[in-house]
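Minutes, project check-in

Agenda point 3 was the complex the collaborators sent over. CS summarized: two entities, 326 residues total, and the question is how they sit relative to each other. Sequences were read into the notes so everyone works from the same version.
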Amino acid sequence: MTTAVDVLSGIVWRTCPIRASPSAGARSWLTRHDLLKGEGISHPQARTRFLVARALLRRTIAEARPDLGRTVLDIRTARSGRPTVVDVDPLLDPFLAPSLDPELEDHLGLYLAVSHTRGLAAAAVSTVGPVGIDVEPLGRDDLPPAEIWLTPEEQEEHAGLPPARRRTQLLRLWVAKEAALKASDATQARLRRELAIRGSGEVDRVPTSEDDPGASMLGQVVWHEIEARFLVALASSVTGR
Amino acid sequence: MNTNDPRELLIDVLSGIAPESDPATVDPTEDLRDELDLDSMDELNMITRVSARLGIDIPEKDYPLMRTLDGAVDYLTGRMAAPTP
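CS then shared the predicted structure for the full assembly.
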């Protein structure tokens, strides 16, 4: 069972439940390189989550760019930490892999993001600019102390909320910041405490010194609940376009 | 537990964050997220708890230095040896 939704122009994203092991359908999307990378992950649940998320990402790429081959793309991790594609599987033909540039994040005009948590994987593919996605269980309550990752203004707002709303609001901010960080480029804020998430989902960078004016509208976040169990945030970069 | 030993401290903290795993048996050169099935929230909780127990501030820009057990031990050892400003 997979949910597919088009949210913002040029972005396709999907979610997929994670069970004890990848289904045969999921495995059919994986390359030898994906399977080898999975074998390198020692923790069984982490391995399963990686494989399910990788298959979901490939399926989402195929939906966003049906003109590309189903498994000829290799997916690597760029220096920014973001997944990026190269156009051949180096294990299939190592001499035809000239474009393995880990800095090249928009290869073939594709921007990728992936997230997984206990029970759900999510993937997003954009053809217009950097994209980010994050997913957490709605019931998760082990959030780090607010002062570590919220802006001072967010901390103030958080402290003023009724206790019953605090955890929900913190979770919304957490997934939004994680998604926004994935969608931000090196010239933008890279720290959670610098990214301010407005109620409407606008992403700003707060000033970090008296000489720093900050920046507004770096991106936009939208939230979705999946099966009343998970919260997904999808972020698109405005300035990156 | 010797609280001055960063490795022992990290294993103790990780045992609380990933109770279904055995942090003492991980490959210390591999990414803790893959070895212990941690996500970014677990990672930040680990850093917050280590920071509190050692009484040192760990800036967010240094978080990537703590992605492996050996990397985290090296980083904390260096921070503990550095003079307090």
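Noted in discussion: The first strand of chain A starts at residue 3 and ends at 6.
Follow-up: revisit at the next meeting once the mutant set is ready.
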